[in-house]
Design a protein that fits this description.
The chain is globular. With 406 residues, the chain is of the alpha+beta class. The strands form seven sheets. The chain has a five-stranded mixed sheet, with no helix packed on it. The longest helix is centred in the N-terminal third of the chain and has 15 residues. The structure holds 2-acetamido-2-deoxy-beta-D-glucopyranose (2 copies). One 2-acetamido-2-deoxy-beta-D-glucopyranose (NAG) binds next to loops. Keywords: Glycoprotein, Membrane, Signal, Transmembrane, Transmembrane helix, Vacuole. This is Strictosidine synthase conserved region domain-containing protein. It is found in: Vacuole.
Length: 406
């Protein structure tokens, strides 16, 4: 530090403008009037464990033709935020979990969508059935009561439908539907706060993600902003009814998918923009490794008949986000600026568009499809490849997108 010329009156902030600056900085940092988007929130940003931006982006293939643009939006304003899409063991469906708390089933052109199951025993038409409004923030205050089914999977052996509900936990319903039975609501004495997705092991065990131990779905934005890693991978054992913690300390664990031979399990870590692989059998059993680093924020992941994996990715990472992810203090100041969150996010170069990507069993990219302008598909949550067609779910919009494929 330059000491020369330091006079006595240069002590602690002598000039009024310096004091003002310090005060302004202090106000932004502490945000005592809760003007920033975080309000009075106990915001605890941490460093993420994320692959370097350049390393990921330079290697990532792009879809210059932006082929997702040729997709079609179907069932517009008939389904609300269908995050997960599933077909039953007879191939009927799709079934979809909606923002109003219902699981619905497609019955064909004349009957169309019919309620198949409810997760919450307290579901009521009056409070919960808010149609297109249910994908807006208005529904957040009802979601705890109405439920929010996010992950759906049929058990091919029993014909049961398993449901990961963001508020209620893990549930199951028989093949005739109805009100689901709650199977796992607590683990080690603490609530499953944010069940997100699941898959069914051939021995009957259900592997499912609990996205955070601090935040429920309505506060999911804080998980991303903080980079907090209190999520878990859980296993429900139907024989004993017990739930076990398989992995903890995960950053927004989201989609879950077992491999075709079930030697490994994949799950996405949304905050860290990657897919992780947990080996279940063989020489590497129990080992956890990075399967693929992604250019954006993944949601669900689903297997194809050939045993490859489709990941739904909300795009994209930016350089600014990289700086933020490595400097928690910077996020701490920035997101206390008294401006709208969408504006602050926009300033970091975040523009939402969609990318879906197919991986082989080694984690190599086989295919990338994009809608670069976000013209047709925005905020995708899941991709199912069924009978020559991709079915694309979304947690935020009131439609399902489809695209002939391959
Ligand atoms: C349903 O309502 C009952 C009675 O108010 C309550 O005890 C129970 O916890 C509620 N269940 C759920 C899943 O919200
Ligand atoms: C089912 O398989 C999983 C994964 O290998 C294992 O953790 C679990 O203990 C098995 N459950 C039973 C009942 O064998």
């Amino acid at each position: 530090m330059e000491k020369k010329g330091l006079r006595k009156e240069d002590g602690l902030l002598p000039r009024p403008w310096l004091s003002l600056l310090a005060l302004a900085f202090g106000l932004v940092f502490m945000d005592p009037f809760h003007l920033g988007p975080l309000g009075g929130h106990d915001y605890r940003p941490v460093k993420h464990n994320i692959a370097p931006y350049d390393q990921v982006m330079q290697r990532w293939p792009r879809d210059c033709r932006s082929r997702l643009r040729f997709g079609k939006l179907e069932f517009v304003d008939e389904v609300f935020g269908p995050e997960s899409l599933e077909f039953d063991p007879q191939g009927r469906g799709p079934y979809a979990g909606l923002a109003d708390g219902r699981v619905v089933r497609w019955m064909g052109e004349s009957i169309r969508w019919k309620t198949f199951a409810l997760v919450s025993p307290n579901w009521s038409e009056k409070v919960c059935a808010n149609g297109v409004e249910s994908t807006t923030a208005k529904q957040h205050k009802h979601e705890k009561l109405c439920g929010r089914p996010l992950g759906l999977r049929f058990d091919k052996t029993s014909g049961k439908l398993y449901i990961a509900d963001a508020y209620l936990g893990l549930a199951a319903v028989g093949h005739h539907g109805g009100v689901a039975t709650l199977l796992s609501t607590h683990v080690q004495g603490r609530p499953v706060l944010f069940a997100n997705d699941l898959d069914v092991h051939r021995n009957g065990s259900i592997f499912f993600t609990d996205t955070s131990s601090r935040y429920s779905r309505s506060d999911h934005f804080f998980i991303l902003l903080e980079g907090e890693a209190t999520g878990r991978l859980l296993r429900y054992d139907p024989a004993s009814g017990a739930t076990h913690v398989v992995l903890r300390g995960l950053a927004f664990p989201n989609g879950v998918q077992l491999s075709k031979d079930q030697t490994f399990l994949l799950f996405t870590e949304t905050t860290n923009c990657r897919i992780m692989r947990l080996w279940m059998e063989g020489p590497k059993a129990g080992k956890l490794e990075v399967f693929a680093d992604l250019p954006g924020f993944p949601d669900n992941i689903r297997i194809t008949e050939k045993g490859q994996f489709w990941a739904a990715i909300d795009c994209c990472r930016t350089r600014a986000q990289e700086v933020f992810s490595r400097n928690p203090w910077l996020r701490s100041v920035y997101f206390r600026l008294p401006l709208r969150l969408s504006f602050l996010a926009g300033m970091t170069g975040m523009k939402m568009f969609t990318m879906i990507s197919l991986f082989d069993e080694e984690g190599n990219v086989v295919e990338v499809l994009e809608d670069r302008g976000g013209e047709v598909m925005k905020l995708v949550s899941e991709v199912r490849q069924v009978q020559g067609k991709l079915w694309v779910g979304t947690v935020a919009h009131n439609s399902i997108a489809t695209l002939p494929y391959p």
